[in-house]
Amino acid sequence: MTRKRLALWPLGMILILVGMLLAAGGGWLAALGGSLYYLPSGLACLVSGILFCRGNRLGLWLYLAVVAVTVVWAIAEVGLHFWLLLPRLCGPLVLALYMMMPWVRHALGLGQAAAPGERQGRAGSGARAFAAAVVVGAVLLGGGAWALHWSKGNAQSSAPLAPQSATSWSDYAGDKGGQRFSPASQITPANVDRLKVAWTYRTGDLPTNGMPQMFEATPLQIGNSLYLCTGHNIVIALDADTGKERWRHDPKVEAKGVYTLACRGVAYHEATDPAIRECRSRILMGTVDGRMIALDAQTGRRCQDFGRNGEIPLHVGLGSVKPGVQFVTSPPTILGNVAVVGGFVLDNMGTGNPSGVVRAFDVTSGKQLWAWDAGRHDPNALLKPGETYVHGSPNAWSLFSADPKLGLVYIPTGNPSPDHFGGTRSADMERYGSSVVALDIATGKLRWSFQTVHHDLWDYDVASQPVLVDLPLNGQQVPALIQPTKQGEIFLLDRRTGRSLAPVEERPVPRGNVPGERYAATQPVSLAFPSLVPPPLREADMWGATPIDQLWCRIEYRRLRYAGRFTPPSLDNSLILPGNNGIMNWGSVAVDAERSIMIVPTSYMPLLLKLIPRKDAPKSDEITLEGRGAISPMNGTPYAVRTERPFVSPLGIPCNAPPWGRLTAIDLKTRQILWQRPLGTTVDHAPLGLPVPGVFNQGGAMVTRGGLAFIGATLDNYLRAFDLKSGKELWKGRLPAGGQALPMSYVSPRTGKQYVVISAGGHSFMHTKIGDYVVAYSLQDPETDK
Asked: Is 459 designated active site?
């Protein structure tokens, strides 16, 4: 008997430990006003463990009763969502199954053959049947949840279109309107499964000294060449059919102090003036050390007519610029002979940050044509001698769009510096923050502006490129602008006037109590499209790998200040969803105007944020790392700010439930969702490769006339193709590194073959695999496809 009892001790001690943790945590949670499930279930597990240690079979029945109650509670709380039930039920059910093992039942005196044992045998059979019923029921009930993460659609695709002999991809997003649409139609839902790697190129530009680096470039395709840039602003030209390097230019950038090395792309210009003999076709690129460089697209040599030695300085008029605080990550936008460029300004450093001024330059000479400084009373006013543009004014770091017919360039703006305290901002600084503005390309004068967030305290700057599309409204084709936002709203505007083409409601939002701060009473909510904004988080939405870390997340949720997506920053720890990564970021949306379908990638990852009074903040002008978070100084304000992202358990598991990323198709005519599905899986990050569907993504989707949506972007290293009609995943190709870039597609003018190309270089902050690859896919010849 003693040996039998000793055999039960490990199981009993596990139950005692689990019971103590659940009971202690459950008591804390109950005191915070949370779920009452954990305290009694923890106490029951504790008693069950003691009974097991004593060899008492009542411990088994008590634990099975806990499992039964847990199943009922879990389904009542989250319904039949498989991935939400998994952390609630997996651990308890595994333990229940272990208890059915012969050595456990034998130690408890169950399943023996003697006369008294016949009753014991019946008891053992009953226990096994009860446990099996619980497990099978949970699995069957939970299995129905797979469908709840995916809504299949049946949009009507247009008839097959004749393939074109050749196409081009001459702007970052395919065209100046940012549609991310390729007219190539050779690859279709019927043959995409034959897509294979055509060629792979390696840039050789890999991170050094642990410096964060992202290879986010989308190549341009002009004729037989591709043009792209690397994190160190090395510009490379490749053969469009073979991937063979034609030329490269290394500007030898000074990267010291740069927060993150990234270059999303270059811009292309072809001269129409016959008087220009050199550099008739040229590549322009902004750099991480504050320059803009012009290169001959044919040779890679510097265009000597552009500034001095083919470059112009971009820090002129900004005052003293500390390395890494202001630089360019997105390509300039070129319209006619004008190149418009903004710049990234490092978040939360202080009110003395460099200006976010947007400037236009002559593409040929590099001469500055105009400037628009969102922080000046007259944004176009010329600088006086010794004067600088306004420090801390809203910047424009993302991708611009342009309308050649209207002569307008559309600028998505950030919020004034710093991001999370606005008590020192002037009225001029507030006017154009977190907005989309339309500027006259010839003069830089404001034509119109539309603000997406009032008095932005959340870093909900407009990160997505505006997308231009003509839509049928009231019997007319109206030139529209679609503006996705970090907070999840998608605004629909008339791009001629900025007038909203759909209702926009100003809804009340919570106000904070931080001394010296002021708060907007309302925030705009778009009714143009079905909302992709998640409902406010509840305690029941907390997740984790086990009941223990899920309990930890519940306790933290109850301790945090949270009042929805506009929870104001405070001196307490606050939960901010979506956080500064946003629901939609620089990947924006893709539009197939011919089918009137918009493809929207979204992410859902909360951020923890806390304001720190100046007296308690680190005495440093730099970002201070602290645990899983970082403290930024916000100089010039009464506070520093601590940010931590994402909101995860001690095991590193997200506290908010999956899916954390989705892909949605919206009909632009009916403005209804056609289909929605989780995007990507955790296979490259989760323990044991557990493929939880729907992950954080960064990079954007591309659609083709062939009826497909292509997207990398996810935490797992794949490029995927989806049927635009149904949303079904038709193909995925394994990438050698993370695909955090916008894919593109073209038909070669030399071979007539369609290629799909993506940069696979990973993302330091997403912890995807780092690399330096450009990967091109094409259809494999059916005769050799064996």
From this structure: yes
Give tens-digit pLDDT for 274-325.
888 899 999 999 999 999 999 999 999 999 999 999 999 999 999 999 988 9
Length of the chain: 786
User: Is 40 buried (19+), middle (13-18) or exposed (0-12) by CB count in 10 A?
Assistant: middle
Tell me if 643 sits within 8 A of 609, measured CB to CB.
yes
Confidence of residue 112 (pLDDT cuts 50, 70, 90): low
DSSP 654: B
DSSP one-letter code for 681: B
Does the N-terminal peptide bond of residue 646 adopt cis geometry, omega within 30 degrees of 0?
yes
Residue 418: asked if its preceding bond is cis (omega within 30°), the reply is yes
Question: What is the C-alpha to C-alpha distance for residues 82 and 97, in angstroms, rounded to an integer?
Answer: 19
242: closest CA among 191, 181, 304, 198? 198
Helix (H) or strand (E) holding 47: helix 38-53
DSSP 418-484: SSS--TT--HHHHHTTTEEEEEETTT--EEEEEESSSS--S-----SPPEEEEEEETTEEEEEEEEE
For residues 37 and 73, the answer to whether their CB atoms sit within 8 Å is yes
Task: Give yes or no for a contact between 207 and 213, defined as CB atoms under 8 angstroms apart.
Answer: yes
Provide the pLDDT for residue 113. Answer: 40
CB 465 within 8 A of CB 588: yes
- The answer to whether residues 180 and 588 touch, using CB atoms and an 8 Å cutoff, is yes
pLDDT value of position 20: 97
Handedness of CA 454, 456, 460, 463 (dihedral sign): positive
Nearest to 425 by CA among 356, 490, 369: 356
Q: CA nearest 683: which of 691, 675, 673, 671?
A: 691
- Predicted confidence at residue 157, as pLDDT, reads 45
Give yes or no for a contact between 296 and 249, defined as CB atoms under 8 angstroms apart: no
Largest CA distance in the chain: 109
Q: What is the pTM of this model?
A: 0.93
Report CA-CA distances (Å) from 150 to 497, 674, 677: 38, 11, 4
Nearest residue to 88 (alpha-carbon basis) of 540, 648, 537: 540
Catalytic residue among 205, 459, 541, 772: 459
CA distance linking residue 482 with residue 156, whole number of Å: 22
* Residue 164 pLDDT level (bands cut at 50, 70, 90): low
Comparison of pLDDT for 150 and 701, the residue scoring more: 701
Instruction: Identify the CA nearest to 394 among candidates 410, 373, 409.
Output: 373
| Cβ neighbours for 474, distance < 8 A, ≥ 6 positions apart | none
What whole-number percentage of the chain has pLDDT above 70? 92
Residue 334 CA to residue 402 CA, distance in Å, equals: 8
Cβ burial 85-96 (10 Å sphere, 16+ → b, else e): bbbbbebbbebb
Output the DSSP codes for 394-421: --B-S--EEETTTTEEEEE--PPSSSS-
Name beta bridge partners: 270.
281
Do the beta carbons of residue 351 and residue 637 sit within 8 Å?
yes
Residue 668 near residue 662, CB atoms below 8 Å: no
